[in-house]
């Protein structure tokens, strides 16, 4: 009882409670936004008022409905009279699709490479560590740009490049986690009864490292969206008839002063989605971090 | 190696074909040791580090374990007991190498492969089970890998194994996670897992050290039971000399990576011939003994690659003289089952 009467302690408890509540609001909003994104990804096309490529030259650069425009183009139109809302829906779908496919791709590649390095040691380990260090020292954007410059642009290549983003972080994470887990009793025990190689990783190591991987994936999610947008913005990502968030901004850049809505809406979507993914990742890290969990107990 | 000719002073003949390695091999002195269906360890050496700068952690270990025999491996921390276990299991980490031969049931255990005929029970029963997997998952995994039993048959066999190791409500236990069971229960599961592969050799690395005394006795009873039922050879690593005196058929004392004495618990406790064994026994607390400080052996086990080269115990031994620092101690046969490796063992 005396401890609860302690004013400093009760203040601390209250402050902690408030911070938990604050985080929960942010995370709830983030989750809501991502839910909207997932909805757009799955069903958005049904709600798009126009086709993303249909041109309406009589209504070029029409402002959004709430800024003096008409309701027929709620978020305005771009320089060819294409409906911004419709393009936004299609662009969000493409960009999210890239992230949804790309994130697990990089995670799986990186995690397996890291595990094999930890499991086989020796030359394999040294090679992987060297490659990881080389990748970490080089901005991925430059690697992506040069690969596209050499090999030309197509959707499959783009997916591979974007998907491989962050592999070195997964590899490093997976290598260190595997190294410590390989010394743990249950992994040694599993080896005594004949589990080895990749099954050892999938059945025994991965389930115990999944939380950490998952957190890393939410962080990479935001970054992959930004990477795709940057590439498209630079004109090396998805090519114009296809609408992606990045190339919408790239297009709108020229009209920034006269028709802000062409670039601002896709920019807002990128911002909100990246922020939501990061916030959720942060929240998850707090949940999965053993020391934070200990403190909450 | 020149000193090796005079080893078996008490008259047992040396096996000439293997005389090269006889320096460290008590098994040559105890001639009729090799039996079918048992473990034979010949000149097991484990080196730490790759060629060039490697350091021996376990040196030229040779011993046999017969069917249904329980052999205890005792010694201080750092004497190489656990490494010996892992070497026999075939699970040495990449930075360790083994030399020497291991035979199980007459067949050689190949280097660097996990032996399918060997199972292991570990010190920390909870940590030995994957925290995110159910007990059933573990059992079914072993059955599938070692016996190719899957599906409903595997379930039935797993339940039967759990019943065999004395777990109540085995069907329910199948669905539980390791943290939902007590340490003793988990160790029973560990033994069930070991038995699931139908091994002929069981390595138990301090299986009872983390359990309380009552549970300890139950687990030891269980091990004794499965040894009888399955005719298992058990190598049992422990610090607990009390347990050894009650349970083991034979004891091997290790020090600094070497075997220093072997014999029945009775031999060793009543007539320890190696000063290290004597010191170990003397450091046991006694019920009804005079009050005061517990006796201990001064100093500590030398790290691998350091300390005296011939008798590893020479630095800490009260009876050591120049011979001990200059010549490798021979194996002295006190009686056919009792061997000690000390210049002074003959008294």
Notable traits:
heterodimer, A: 297 residues, mainly alpha, MetI-like fold, 75% helix, 0% strand, disordered C terminus, B: 347 residues, alpha/beta, Rossmann fold, 3 domains, 8-stranded mixed sheet, 4-stranded antiparallel sheet, 29% helix, disordered N terminus
Please describe what this structure looks like:
The complex is a heterodimer of chains A (297) and B (347). Chain A has 297 residues and is mainly alpha-helical. In chain A, 75% of the residues lie in helices and 0% in strands. Chain B has an eight-stranded mixed β-sheet with strand order 6-7-8-3-9-10-12-11, sandwiched between helices. In chain B, strands 2-1-4-5 form a four-stranded antiparallel β-sheet, with helices on one face. Chain B has 347 residues and is an alpha/beta fold. Residues 1-24 and 27-36 of chain B have low confidence and may be disordered. Chain B is built from ten helices and twelve strands. The interface between A and B is medium-sized, with 19 and 26 residues.
Write the layout of secondary structure elements.
The complex is a heterodimer of chains A (297) and B (347).
Chain A: H1 2-5, H2 7-47, H3 84-120, H4 122-137, H5 140-151, H6 155-163, H7 167-182, H8 185-192, H9 197-233, H10 245-252, H11 261-288, H12 290-296
Chain B: E1 39-48, E2 55-65, E3 70-74, H1 81-89, E4 96-104, E5 107-108, E6 118-121, H2 135-147, H3 151-164, H4 170-174, H5 183-196, E7 201-205, H6 213-230, E8 233-238, H7 241-247, E9 250-255, E10 258-263, H8 265-270, H9 275-282, H10 322-326, E11 331-335, E12 338-341
Parallel strand pairs in B: 3-8, 3-9, 6-7, 7-8
Antiparallel strand pairs in B: 1-2, 1-4, 4-5, 9-10, 10-12, 11-12
Helix pairs in contact in B: 2-3, 2-5, 3-5, 5-6
């Amino acid at each position: 009882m005396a401890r609860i009467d302690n004013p400093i302690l009760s203040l601390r408890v209250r402050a902690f409670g408030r911070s938990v509540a604050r985080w929960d609001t942010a995370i709830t909003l983030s989750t809501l936004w991502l839910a909207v994104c997932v909805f757009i990804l799955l069903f958005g096309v049904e709600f798009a008022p126009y086709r993303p490529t249909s041109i309406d030259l009589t209504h070029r650069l029409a402002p959004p409905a709430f800024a003096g425009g008409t309701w027929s183009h709620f978020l305005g139109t771009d320089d060819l009279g294409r409906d911004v809302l419709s393009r936004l829906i299609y662009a969000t779908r493409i960009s999210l699709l890239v992230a949804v496919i790309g994130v697990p791709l990089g995670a799986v590649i990186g995690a397996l490479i890291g595990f094999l390095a930890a499991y086989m040691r020796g030359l394999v380990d040294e090679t992987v560590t060297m490659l990881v260090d080389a990748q970490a020292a080089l901005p991925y954007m430059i690697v992506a740009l040069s690969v596209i410059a050499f090999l030309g642009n197509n959707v499959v290549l783009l997916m591979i490049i974007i998907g491989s983003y962050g592999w070195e972080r997964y590899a490093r994470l997976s290598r260190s986690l595997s190294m410590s887990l390989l010394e743990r009793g249950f992994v040694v025990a599993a080896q005594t009864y004949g589990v080895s190689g990749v099954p050892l990783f999938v059945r025994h190591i991965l389930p115990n490292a999944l939380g950490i991987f998952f957190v890393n994936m939410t962080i990479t999610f935001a970054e992959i969206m930004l990477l795709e947008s940057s590439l498209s913005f630079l004109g090396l990502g998805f090519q114009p008839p296809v609408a992606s968030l990045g190339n919408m901004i790239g297009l709108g850049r020229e009209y920034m002063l006269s028709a802000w809505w062409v670039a601002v809406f896709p920019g807002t979507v990128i911002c909100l989605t990246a922020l939501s993914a990061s916030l959720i990742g942060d929240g998850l890290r707090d949940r999965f971090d053993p020391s934070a969990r200990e403190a909450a107990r | 190696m020149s000193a090796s000719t005079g080893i078996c002073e008490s008259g047992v003949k040396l096996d000439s074909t293997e005389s090269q390695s006889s320096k460290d091999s008590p098994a040559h002195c105890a001639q009729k040791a090799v039996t079918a269906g048992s473990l034979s360890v010949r000149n097991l050496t484990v080196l730490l580090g790759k060629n060039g700068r490697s350091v021996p952690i376990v040196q030229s270990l040779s011993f046999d374990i017969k069917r249904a025999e329980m052999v205890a491996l005792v010694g201080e921390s750092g004497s190489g007991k656990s490494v010996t276990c892992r070497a026999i299991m075939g699970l040495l980490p990449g930075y360790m190498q083994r030399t020497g031969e291991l035979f199980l049931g007459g067949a050689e255990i190949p280097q660097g492969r996990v032996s399918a005929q060997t199972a292991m029970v570990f010190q920390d029963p909870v940590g030995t089970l994957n925290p995110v997997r159910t007990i059933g998952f573990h059992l079914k995994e072993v059955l599938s890998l070692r016996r190719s039993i899957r599906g409903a048959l595997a379930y039935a066999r797993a339940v039967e194994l759990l019943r065999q190791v004395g777990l109540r409500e085995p069907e329910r236990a199948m669905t539980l996670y390791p943290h939902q069971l007590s340490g003793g229960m988990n160790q029973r599961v560990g033994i069930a897992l070991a038995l699931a592969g139908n091994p002929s050799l069981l390595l138990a690395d301090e299986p009872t050290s983390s359990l309380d005394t009552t549970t300890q006795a139950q687990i030891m009873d269980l091990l004794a039971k499965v040894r009888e039922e399955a005719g298992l050879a058990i190598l049992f690593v422990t610090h607990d000399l009390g347990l050894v005196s009650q349970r083991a058929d034979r004891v091997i004392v290790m020090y600094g990576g070497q075997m220093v004495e072997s014999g029945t618990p009775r031999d060793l406790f009543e007539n320890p011939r190696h000063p290290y064994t004597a010191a170990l026994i003397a450091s046991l607390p006694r019920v009804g003994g005079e009050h005061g400080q517990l006796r201990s052996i001064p100093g500590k086990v030398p790290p691998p690659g350091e300390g005296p080269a011939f008798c590893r115990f020479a630095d800490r031994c009260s009876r050591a003289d120049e011979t001990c620092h200059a010549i490798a101690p021979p194996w002295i046969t006190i009686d056919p089952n009792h061997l000690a490796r000390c210049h002074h063992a003959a008294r």
